[in-house]
Amino acid sequence: YTFPSGGRFTIVASGAAGDSGMLEGLLVHEMSHIYRMKSGHPSHDAEIINEAIGGIARRGFDRDYQLKILHDIVNSLEDLYADDVAFKVFGKSRIFPVETMGKFFLSWLTPDQVVSGNARHDRWVNAAVMLRNSFAISNMARNGVPDVGDRARGLNERFLSGLPMSTSKSFEYFRDVMLNLKENITGTEFRDLLTEYLDRFVELAEDEHQTA
User: What is the CA radius of gyration of the chain?
Assistant: First the structure.
């Protein structure tokens, strides 16, 4: 992750990332976040993001796990915008071969639902898993990473198969949002998009029929 510090930016990477063989790619991704922040792209505007998440929290969705999930799903949009930059670098420098990119995104996909016995918690977590799957699939599509053997599609279909049809329709909405994020988006447009995105997520996470 990256954070501003004293007018500069600090990138923090885990030891595991250093041993993964993907450290260069991680650094390019994080530097792409820095580019988005320094260029003032609305997707990385802290005021817009905090306002949107704060609005949801003030409606009573302010438990620790809920706030973490809300930040995670907003970060997915930030990551998509960062990767639009990072993949341009990857294409020119060939830091990552396509095969490596495909395996990386496959590792994000979860085929099984979470069942802990806490119905409301599970709905929120499974809705977040659905968005993480959508992020991986959408990122591959946005950046021309082939889904070899339809493995990503298959893992996601396995996840959705255990949920009501309405949840599959919700997946289509979130996938379409992620696929169609536009580069030249204004602050007002991103604020509106983010508000609807979070509202739709909460509606899904609070739907008691989601795990029926």
Answer: 17
Per-residue pLDDT of the chain (212 residues; tens, 9 = 90+): 898 888 899 999 888 877 777 888 899 999 999 999 999 999 999 999 999 999 999 999 999 999 999 999 999 999 999 999 999 998 888 777 777 888 889 999 999 999 998 999 999 999 999 999 999 999 999 999 999 999 999 999 999 998 888 788 899 999 999 999 999 999 999 999 999 999 999 999 998 776 54
Task: Mention every residue, 6+ apart, whose C-beta is less than 8 A from residue 4.
Answer: 10, 37
Indicate the burial class of 107 (C-beta count within 10 angstroms; 0-12, 13-18, 19 or more).
exposed
pLDDT over 90 for what percent of the chain?
76
DSSP string over the chain:
-EEEETTEEEE---HHHHHTT-HHHHHHHHHHHHHHHHTT-GGG-HHHHHHHHHHHHTTT--SHHHHHHHHHHHHHHHHHHHHHHHHHHHHHH--S-HHHHHHHHHTT---S----S-HHHHHHHHHHHHHHHHHHHHHHHHTT---GGGHHHHHHHHHHHTS-HHHHHHHHHHHHHHHT--SS--HHHHHHHHHHHHHHHHHHHT-TTTT-
CA 3, CA 183: separation in Å to the nearest integer? 23
Please state, in angstroms and as integers, the Cα–Cα distance from residue 57 to each residue in 29, 71, 170, following that order: 29, 11, 22
